[in-house]
Amino acid sequence: MPADVLTIIEEPEPSAPECGQVLIRTTAFTVHPGDLQTIGAYPGKATQPVPAGLEATGVVEAIGPGTRVAPGVRFGGRVTVFPQPGAWSQWIVADAEVVVAVPDELSDEVAAQMLANPLTTVMLRREAEEHLAFGDDGCLVQTAAGSSVGRLVTGKYSPARSASSSSRTGP
């Protein structure tokens, strides 16, 4: 149960970001399998709270003095951040190098997945193409493509070369 491994704590609002940092008010975050592995690694063992989460979307509340930011990142603008330990927080002070502007047409929930999932998709596809035991015959069949990564593999990454399948049991 989440209550057995997670504790919500109140922390003060962060101070102004320093040079090279961006202060973000979080509006959405993802729950990746890696997040769950991190949480499960410390049950009852951590002496200090372990910040959870690695990817989030939010609004830029401040940019540190002299900070160079990616194109489109501005005060009041929507951004996503990855990897950012502690992304399940209300406020994030992130290194500017991991902050990316979010296109207006994306919802916060979709934007919160826009960095890690495509990278995972590319790595999975590359591994499938280069795996010595299987080789690449130009076709990839994937089952259980209901996840965000699965939908990227079967629909967006290479629709002409991919297929998905499902199975059912019973009559």
Characterization of the model:
- 25% of the residues lie in helices and 22% in strands.
- The radius of gyration is 19 Å and the shape is globular.
- The strands form two sheets. The chain has a five-stranded antiparallel beta sheet with strand order 4-1-2-3-5. A two-stranded parallel ribbon has the order 6-7.
- With 171 residues, it is an alpha+beta fold.
- Helix 4 (116-130) crosses helix 5 (148-157).
- Strand 6 (140-143), helix 5 and strand 7 form a beta-alpha-beta unit.
Write down the Rg: 19 Å
Query: Structural class of the helices, strands and pairings?
Result: alpha+beta
The outline comes out as globular
Q: Taking strands numbered 1, 2, ... along the chain, how are they ordered across the largest sheet?
A: 4-1-2-3-5
Number of DSSP-assigned strands: 7
Topology overview:
Blueprint: H1 2-5, E1 21-29, H2 33-41, E2 56-63, E3 78-81, E4 91-95, E5 99-101, H3 108-111, H4 116-130, E6 140-143, H5 148-157, E7 162-165
Helix pairs in contact: 4-5
Please name the defining characteristics of this protein.
single chain, 171 residues, alpha+beta, five-stranded antiparallel sheet, two-stranded parallel sheet, 5 helices, disordered C terminus
In short:
With 171 residues, this protein is an alpha+beta fold.
